[in-house]
Amino acid sequence: MVDSESGQRQSVGGVPDAAGAPGNYSNSAITMLHSAEARPGTKDEQVLAAKISRAMASGPLHITEDATVVEMDRQGNTVVLRQGTNDWVCLPGDENEIGNVPMCADPMGLQWMLDMMAGKPAPTNTAPGIIYMLCGATQHSNTDPSDRTSPPIPIGPHWMILWPYDATRDGLPNTVRDAGAWVMFDGTPYAYLHICGNPWDGNEYVRGQVPIWTMKYGNPNEPAPK
Fold first, then answer.
1. Which residues pair with 173 in a beta bridge?
2. Residue 9: pLDDT above 50?
3. Can you list the positions of beta strands (E) in the chain?
4. E strands of 77-226, at which residues?
5. How far apart, in Å, are the Cα atoms of 195 and each of 25, 127, 153, 202?
6. How many C-beta atoms lie closer than 10 Å to residue 5's C-beta?
7. Is the per-residue pLDDT at 13 higher than 70?
8. Rounded to whole angstroms, how far apart are CA atoms 226 and 219?
9. What DSSP state is assigned to residue 81?
10. Alpha-carbon distance 121 to 110, whole Å?
11. Which residue from 133, 159, 186, 193 could staple onto 174, CB 3.0 to 4.6 Å apart?
């Protein structure tokens, strides 16, 4: 079942469902992922621990373990769940809301995001910002940052360089893909470089190995490639 407050799937006994919700990056799959302590006792403590764990899973652990974790509403109002010691801010997100995903931002990245949420004509960050979304994401549009109604687009783990990229000028694609990079919101003031994959993890290539992708778009009626 799903906890109405946390969105976390639980068994009848209150323990997270090991199977998790659909998808590899659901709340159940990442809740308590980085917890080094025993499972909290009360329901409120469990919800808080789950939110902090989701936020920590959104970026490289050597950054998120010291980051401030906050919840944020659509107006940009925040509640601190855990005070950090570095300049990064991580958000747990809510898998039941399109676009409200776990993320971790540096100061310039956070400014960019707050500007977009406020509907400003253009972002005001004065240097390139970084946002990690290593739990994957959903969003309404690849072309319109103000779109709140289109069907959700599933996107794999990625990170973002928040600076005014231009697909034609920079020789980059501007369409959604499951690997590589593209310019999202191309042609708008909020255009930025979107890079699929985790820059910190991965296996070293050894000659003779073959690529194995963790996420790939395809026709659900066709057999998966071997």
1. none
2. no
3. 68-72, 78-82, 89-91, 103-105, 129-133, 137-139, 153-155, 158-162, 180-184, 192-196
4. 78-82, 89-91, 103-105, 129-133, 137-139, 153-155, 158-162, 180-184, 192-196
5. 18, 18, 16, 15
6. 10
7. no
8. 15
9. E
10. 16
11. 186
Say if residue 171 is exposed, middle or buried (CB neighbours under 10 Å; 0-12, 13-18, 19+): exposed
Residue 181 in tokens: 């990079």
Question: Which tokens belong to 48?
Answer: 């808080």
Q: How confident is the model at residue 96 (pLDDT cuts 50, 70, 90)?
A: confident
The CA distance from 91 to 52, in Å, is: 8
In this prediction, residue 30 carries a pLDDT of 63
Q: Which residue is listed with tokens 């020789």?
A: 171
pTM confidence score? 0.75
Q: Which two tokens stand for residue 192?
A: 């930025």
**Enclosing H/E stretch for 55:** helix 43-56
Q: Can you read off the two tokens belonging to residue 166?
A: 């231009």
pLDDT band at 201 (very low <50, low <70, confident <90, very high): low
Strand order in the sheet with 129-133: 78-82, 68-72, 89-91, 103-105, 129-133, 158-162, 192-196, 180-184
